[in-house]
Design a protein that fits this description.
The chain is an all-alpha fold and 807 residues long. The chain has 40 helices and two strands. Strand 1 and strand 2 form a beta hairpin. The chain is flat and about 105 Å long.
Length: 807
């Protein structure tokens, strides 16, 4: 049974990190079956803390009328006529699923932490590390060979079994720390297995580097350094300290030398230094902290963070959707209330202090590595959500359960000496006898007192009663994942989302409405479902009220993404053009620095709708950035109107930045009244500083090529020219250029040779041959223009300037 438990622990990360409901169902089902077959008989010291956590989670099913109504909920129910459930949680089915997962985690954790292990802890840890090493090896093989493992879904170019690289790095780094401890233990016993675990430790380091997770790399090296200093710092054998530090520092040096893209995530690229203050993670934390202060002791209900946080984003607002706050502690505090993080921290501290490894105790090397890993796991939760994933949390619970010494606990229970008494008394009343020589690395559960060996039937019955409904729920989750819908689940919601996209593509709008209604049973705060339903209603119903309300709901529930109001405006453009402008106003407010790009798309969409195009032109009146976009697509008549308006309102063009002024003159030269532009330049000579290119275009347009070329020659910045010299005879350079027309090195050398011999015509002919070649370096056009001007070839010079300046 011990090895089955280890296998179930490894199953959690192996099933893609158990981030999908079917994987969670398999893991939970296996664990509850173990509890039903072999329930524990000892009570958990943390039972009151865990019970409090479950009670906080269950508060989501209390009547909402018992509590003050938050403003966002009041707005949804009154302004948007959203019929929310009467429970405190606005999405009770979501909360129920998450509550059952929390119950399974609490039940499994308490089971492991009270289990009497029949095997030595060293053996259990070795089996776990060996299994984890197999997973790491498989992930590295898949990365190297380029094949994909079906149940693993790393996002983008990430590596490993989780979609998120930081969650992959967490168990790998903690497993590597345990392998380091096993290597030390084996080497101290002169056991050759130490070489195997040392190799496993190195493979783990390779995996965290390939994974490119800053958190994984930090946990790996910081944990290794702290552990080595702890276990060898007071040792009389200083050679162990030196060897341990040398090994860790050697691997860290290898990382600094060959870290590649992973190292760049710490140091930044030479042209892109790391800017910590600009990191999105910290702005998310700022908004999460603000929301955390407003939630009461009961929180917003399990599973409701994503829709509620979307309504409270300020500093982190952007064109994306956030599903978690980049912190376990904030996530737990917002969903369960501000009491929950305090309970979790109290339970973790209690467990670590009660079972803190003694330096002269059994398996000190191994248990100290687990203790360091547990502390780093808790710290990692400040900046990530590893504690919210079964694939990371359950392995950590298993490792933490190995800290427990069942003989010491039994002795404490028998004599009544607990942790507080041990703290107060310098000499414990009862000392645990030293283990036999054969058990120095672990304690068998079969030892201990008679009180421990006789399990409590009441405790066993309680565990079975709690596990039975979980087995039913896990079975129902599996059925739901396979396609049936006994009740709404996240698996059925995911299936609804996939079917919605297909139904929209097939234009099955009746089916779209049916699917959206089905999904809203589980997630009534899901903006996508309202949006898809509105799209279908636009094709089905002649009435606008339902469609308008669903679009408004989608916009309120997702107040940051630009695509929501923009796509709504496109729908209104075909159905009711007068309503498109309001949606597009909202899209422009959300666009931020991408406003000009979005405005260009709007103008393109409104090409066939003149009244909307006129309204869009009005939006650019006070937005120079948008005005430039409009002028780039304007007709000559529209451009003349806008230029006259701008000059009448701002004759000195002070509202335009220098680069905007340069672009304004260029657009005026292309689309507006060129005669008026020339008069304006003659009346304002200072404008030539930013508008010289536009002025040159006007001059060339009326045939004054010489004047245009000389103006550009005075104002343009010279490009950087090559500094190499090719020492070859002119005849040989000509032959090289004749054989290979894109030999720009030989061409530049031949140009220099002719120019040095004052053969300007030959030099100009050489440049003409080079500039006729595709992808010719830009500086050749500059040289051609300058030389053509010198020779008085103004047509040739003007063509070269246009190529050089891309006009």
């Amino acid at each position: 049974m011990d090895f089955i438990i280890v296998g179930l622990t490894l199953l959690a990360p192996a099933l893609g990190g158990s981030t999908k409901l079917w994987a969670q169902a398999l893991v939970v089902l296996g664990c509850v079956l173990v509890i039903l077959v072999a329930p524990p008989g000892a009570r958990l010291p943390l039972r009151f803390i865990l019970a409090g956590l479950l009670l906080l989670a269950g508060a989501g099913f209390l009547p909402a009328t018992w509590f003050a109504t938050p403003s966002w909920r009041h707005t949804l129910q009154t302004d948007y006529q959203l019929p929310l459930a009467g429970t405190l949680s606005p999405q009770p089915w979501v909360t129920l699923e998450n509550l059952l997962l929390l119950l399974a985690t609490v039940l499994w954790g308490s089971y492991l932490c009270t289990r009497r292990w029949e095997s030595r802890r060293r053996v259990l840890l070795a089996v776990y590390c060996a299994g984890l090493l197999d997973l790491i090896g498989l992930a590295l093989a898949a990365e190297t060979a380029g094949f994909h493992i079906g149940i693993w879904h790393p996002v983008g170019d990430t590596f490993g079994f989780f979609p998120n690289r930081n969650q992959t790095g967490n168990p790998i780094a903690l497993g590597g720390l345990c392998m380091l401890a096993l290597a030390f233990l084996m080497f101290s016993r002169k056991n050759r297995a130490g070489y195997f675990w040392a190799a496993g430790y190195i493979v783990s380091m390779v995996a965290v580097v390939v994974n490119r997770s800053r958190a994984g790399v930090s946990i790996f090296f910081l944990g290794s350094l702290v552990w080595v200093l702890w276990v060898t710092g007071r040792s009389r054998e200083k050679s162990k300290l030196g060897l341990g530090l040398s090994a860790v520092l050697l691997l860290f040096t290898a990382f600094l030398l060959f870290g590649g893209r992973t190292l760049e995530r710490f140091t930044g690229r030479p042209d892109q230094p790391v800017d910590v203050t600009a990191d999105l993670r910290f702005t998310i934390h700022a908004d999460a902290l603000k929301l955390f202060r407003h939630v009461s002791w009961h929180g917003v209900g399990l599973g409701n963070f994503e829709p509620v946080f979307a309504l409270h984003r300020v500093k982190s607002a952007g064109n994306n959707r956030l599903v978690h706050p980049e912190s376990d502690w904030f996530w737990a505090g917002i969903e369960l209330g501000w009491v929950a993080p305090a309970l979790i921290l109290a339970g973790a501290v209690y467990w670590l202090v009660r079972h803190w490894p003694a330096r002269n105790g059994p398996s000190f090397y191994l248990l100290s590595a687990i203790a360091v890993g547990a502390i780093l796991f808790l710290a990692h939760g400040l900046v990530d959500v590893s504690g919210h994933r079964l694939g990371t949390l359950w392995p950590m619970i298993f490792l933490a359960s190995l800290l427990r010494d069942s003989r010491k606990d039994a002795a404490d229970n028998l004599t009544g000496t607990g942790i507080m008494k041990r703290w107060r008394s310098p000499s414990p009343v009862l000392r645990t006898p030293s283990p036999p020589a054969g058990e120095r690395d672990g304690v068998r559960g079969s030892g201990g007192t008679r009180k421990e060996t006789e399990p409590s039937r009441g405790v066993a019955r309680a565990y079975r009663l709690a596990a039975a409904p979980l087995a039913v729920a896990a079975g129902a989750w599996l059925v739901s994942a396979l396609g049936a819908t006994p009740f709404p689940t996240s698996a059925s919601l995911e299936r609804v989302r996939r079917d919605l996209v297909r139904a929209q593509a097939r234009r099955s709008f009746d089916y779209v409405v049916q699917l959206a209604n089905e999904g809203l049973r589980f997630a009534p705060l899901d903006w996508e479902l309202y949006f898809h339903r509105a799209l279908a209603e636009a094709r089905l119903s002649p009435r606008l009220d339902d469609m308008l309300m669903d679009f408004r709901r989608a916009r309120f529930l997702e107040p940051n993404m630009v695509a929501v109001p923009f796509d709504e405006g496109r729908v209104w453009l075909a159905r009711e053009p007068r309503l498109a402008l309001g949606a597009w106003h909202a899209a422009l407010r959300r666009a931020g620095p991408d406003k000009a790009v979005l405005y260009r798309q709007m103008l393109s969409e409104a090409t066939g709708t003149p009244e909307i195009r006129d309204e869009l032109r009005a939006l650019a009146l006070d937005e120079p950035e948008l005005l430039l976009v409009f002028l780039a697509q304007a007709t000559p008549e529209e451009a003349a109107v806008e230029v006259d308006r701008l000059l009448a309102e701002d004759q000195a063009l002070k509202t335009l930045a220098p680069e905007q002024r340069r672009m304004f003159f260029l657009l005026w030269a292309r689309h507006g009244n060129k005669e008026l532009l020339e008069e304006t330049f003659r009346a304002n000579p200072a404008w030539a500083e930013s508008g010289w290119l536009a002025y040159a275009l006007v001059l060339a347009g009326r045939g004054s090529l010489r004047e245009a070329c000389e103006l550009i020659g005075r104002c343009v910045d010279a490009p950087t020219l090559p500094t190499f010299t090719l020492q070859k005879p002119v005849a040989e350079l000509r032959r090289d250029l004749l054989l290979n027309t894109n030999d720009f090195v030989a061409g530049f050398a031949l140009y220099q040779a002719h120019l040095g011999a004052n053969e300007t015509n030959d030099a100009l002919d050489t440049l003409r041959k080079l500039t006729a070649v595709p992808n010719c370096p830009k500086y050749f056009f500059y040289l051609q223009a300058q030389l053509a001007m010198k020779n008085g070839a103004w047509d040739d010079a003007w063509r070269a300037w246009k190529k050089f300046l891309d006009v």
